[in-house]
Amino acid sequence: MGDNNTPSPGMVDYVANAALDPQLTAQFIEATDSEATLELAKQLVNRTIVAYQSVFDGEALGTTRMSPQGDVAKRVDVDGVIKWRVIYANGAIGFDLRPSLPDWTLIPLPGE
User: Fold this and answer.
1) pLDDT digits (tens, 9 = 90+) for 65-97
2) CA 31, CA 111: separation in Å to the nearest integer?
């Protein structure tokens, strides 16, 4: 098996064979042929695009910003997903997947 993003050859063969099985294909089409499934698929595509953008289109790691309400966010990498770690003015901690926080004030790093 390769790195974590590369499926094993055995898994590739299994999926390829399952995809060619007419009975499994018919069962899959029957199970997924509904308005609810199409809506779920649209939501999953949207979430995938948002995640991709947050990783590849966002501000640089280490960027720090402050909101008008006093929340502070720093761009961090958590298990390969780049996001904002936010410390809210009330002390709560959370994450934000938006690529940028343009309405927040940039806090320059020392020496910048």
Assistant:
1) 999 999 999 999 888 788 899 999 999 999 998
2) 59
Number of H helices, E strands in the chain: 3, 5
pLDDT tens digit sequence for 23-57: 776 776 676 667 777 777 778 777 777 667 666 67
Torsion, Cα 9 81 42 22, to 10 degrees, reads: 10
Give this prediction's pTM. 0.53
Q: H/E/C letters for each residue in 2-13? A: CCCCCCCHHHHH
Write out the two tokens for 22.
């007419």
Which three-class secondary structure state does DSSP give residue 40? helix
SS3 65: strand
Give whole-number Cα distances, 97 to 6, 71, 73, 88, 90, in Å: 25, 15, 11, 15, 20
